[in-house]
Design goal:
The chain is about 40% helix and about 10% strand. By secondary structure, it is of the alpha+beta class. Strands 2-1-3 form a three-stranded antiparallel sheet, covered by helices on one side.
Length: about 140
């Protein structure tokens, strides 16, 4: 016997995984999770959660529908987040006349997040291995 009692981490591990995947800095993650940076690094090391390398790219908001699709750069925390390659693949797939699915993103985005994630990943699987969806809100002020 001996040693200090084991302290159970109060960190929300799901949230930690999400923030680590998105490449947040340690200090920002610690603030959001309400713990010290050293504790955060300890937990992350135990879980084997390394920071992703080379995933930082331009981030786009996809809006519109098949007949009028537009995209623009957007802050990381805004609406639907896709990495650049995924955004381009999504635009190509939507603009392709051979594609059998007519998609109105405004309508799709008002559904719950899991539905949107499944719908996107089903035909983006080849083009993109990881889809990071942070938050989904219905798009406003977007004319098709």
């Amino acid at each position: 016997m001996g040693g200090p009692p084991k302290r159970k981490s109060k960190i929300d591990l799901e949230k930690l995984r999400e923030l680590a995947y998105l490449g947040y800095a340690d200090r920002e993650m610690a603030e959001r999770l309400g713990c010290s940076v050293s504790h955060l690094r300890y937990v992350r090391r135990k879980l084997g959660l390394k920071k992703p390398r080379g995933r930082k790219g331009k981030v786009y908001l996809i809006e519109g529908s098949l007949d009028g699709i537009r995209y623009r750069k957007t802050p990381l925390y805004d609406w639907l987040i896709l990495w650049r390659s995924e955004a381009e693949a999504l635009l190509e797939a939507l603009a392709c006349p051979k594609h059998p699915v007519y998609v109105d993103l405004k309508q799709e985005l008002s559904e719950n997040m899991a539905h949107v994630k499944a719908w996107l990943s089903s035909w983006l699987r080849e083009a993109a291995k990881h889809i990071a969806i942070v938050e989904v809100k219905p798009l406003t002020g977007c004319e098709p």
